[in-house]
Amino acid sequence: MNRLARDLDEILDRSHAAFEPLRGERVFITGGTGFVGTWLTEAFAWANRRLALGASAVLLSRDPERFRQRAPHLAADDAIVLLEGDATAFEPPPGTFRFVIHAATAITTPAIAERPVETFEADVRATRTVLEFARTAGTERLLYTSSGAAYGPQPPELEAVGETYLGGPSTVDSATLYGQAKRVSEFLCTAYARQFGIVAPIARLFAFVGPHLPLDLNFAIGNFIGDVLAGRPIAIGGDGTPYRSYLYAADLARWCWTILAAGESARIYNVGSSEAISIRDLARLVADTLAPQTQIAIAKAAVPGAPAARYVPAVDRAAAELRLEPAVALAEGIRRTADWYRKT
Known about the structure:
Strands 3-2-1-4-5-6-11 form a 7-stranded parallel beta sheet, with helices on both faces. Strands 12-9-14 form a 3-stranded mixed beta sheet. Strands 7-10 form a two-stranded parallel ribbon. Helices cover 41% and strands 15% of the residues. By secondary structure, it is α/β, with parallel strands linked by helices. It contains 12 helices and 14 strands. The longest helix is centred in the middle third of the chain and has 21 residues, at 116-136. The protein has one domain (5-207, 247-273, 312-328): NAD(P)-binding Rossmann-like Domain (Rossmann fold), CATH 3.40.50. The chain is globular, with a radius of gyration of 20 Å. Helix 7 links the parallel strand 5 and strand 6. Helix 1 runs parallel beside helix 9 and helix 10 packs across helix 12.
């Protein structure tokens, strides 16, 4: 039995209507084997079987073999085809695809950031390539998964950043290449929507927790869970004062499929939780939820009087227009993530 059955059943219970437009259709997904893409694929495969949709999906992946090893149940699904290639240049699969999800993105590691020109250009070129594919493949609806990084630094006095906020990353800071590329890609989606009639809603993704989240990369909550599972103290690299918020991965998948199915074209929807928590308190919550005896080590002392950085979305638009709300509380999401890894 699929170890995510509970999560996947909850997705269908709350948002089965989001999958009905897929009945008998083909979906093309870039980045389909990353964290976000894997959850989108999990939800698709489950809905396809449970609702007898008769749909199929082509997943574009740079490393299909790694995906086969990591998610063999998905790779073996008859309704899923793995296409090896890069979103910047791939051999277009034949036929019509009424639905496209562009979830591929440049990997944001220090090594990549040292090559801002190539990284920025590749991210934007990938979006243009996918849009050109969609234009010629009979695509009617395309979801672009952008990022909260497109807002630039959130003002400390702004508790949650909404879609009407017009700030942005600095144009003279090469370290902002990720957010800059997302903004340009959003504009390209909007331009294609206007010129070619593709319905192209935009999902600005924030931070998440859930199965498939790496426990050893640049995700604080994943690292904290990994520390506890390994029996180590939780290590906070900074001073613990920044505020973040975390949406459970099953909710992420449910929201994205709903935005694809019902979102307004060229309209931005924040995808995340509006419940802010400091990194220090997050570490304590992870410990209390999984192993209360876990110690917490904070690398730096907080600067007295300095405002805390924030990366927290307002999600009123998703709630008002698409009836989307978080269904899984943070502590429960932490528990489910740890349980999944313990059984892996």
